[in-house]
Design brief:
Strand order of the largest sheet: 9-14-10-11-12-13
Strand content: 15-25%
Oligomer: single chain
Largest sheet: 6 strands, antiparallel
Mean pLDDT: 96
Structural class: alpha+beta
Distance between the termini: 30 Å
């Protein structure tokens, strides 16, 4: 039976047999001894990791260990509020920091805590996901938007419907439309400044 450790673009933790291409966590254990989720996050340190790193092996949802979460791709992880891990994804973490620096017009690259302090209130408020409205034409590739209660990836001239296992279906990107954006503003700014998220191969088909 699938565990409740898959993350959708709304930031919800769900059960599905579909496998993800990226792993991550939210700063600690979200599960109990029966491997059941009892909280949505432990701290403001929400990160995205690779599935394999230096031969390390983990038993998913081990007692008193952080809860392993899984995503279809990095674009979904961003929409849910996760940033790149500084250890297993150091190159991408540095690229994200550089984009953050450009977006904020800062003289020095930010520290992880600085980014997390800004990201956390942009991702969740009083237990609910934070969203914002924006013209569809203003959004860079890799953002997620909500249309008719569904999550869609912005890519080129299209909006691609997310499912746990793949992107299916396509809608034309109506650029003058105002949409609800699921990806946090600070991350949207990083995408606009050149950070290109890893996107599942089905988005290119």
């Amino acid at each position: 039976m699938p565990l409740q450790n898959r993350v959708d673009p709304f930031g919800n933790l769900m059960k599905t047999a579909a496998r993800g291409t990226m792993m991550g966590n939210r700063g600690g254990a979200l599960h109990n001894g029966d491997r059941e989720i009892f909280r949505s996050y432990k701290s403001r340190r929400w990160i995205t990791c690779v599935l394999e790193f230096r031969g390390r092996h983990r038993v998913v949802m081990s007692p008193n260990r952080y809860t392993e979460l899984f995503f279809l791709d990095e674009a979904v992880a961003f929409a849910a509020g996760h940033r790149p891990c500084a250890e297993c994804r150091r190159e991408r973490y540095n690229a994200f920091k550089y984009a953050w620096q450009l977006a904020h017009r800062e003289h020095h690259a930010p520290f992880a805590d600085q980014m997390d302090l800004e990201l956390h209130p942009a991702r969740i408020d009083k237990g609910k996901k934070v969203t914002h409205d924006a013209p569809l034409r203003s959004l860079p590739d890799g953002c997620f938007v909500q249309v008719e209660e569904r999550a869609y990836l912005v890519l080129g001239d299209s909006l691609l419907h997310w499912t746990p296992s793949a992107y299916i279906g396509k809608r034309k990107r109506t650029k003058n439309r105002i949409v609800t954006v699921l990806t946090q503003k600070p991350i949207v700014n990083c995408l606009q400044c050149g950070y290109a998220p890893q996107i599942h191969e089905t988005a290119r088909h």
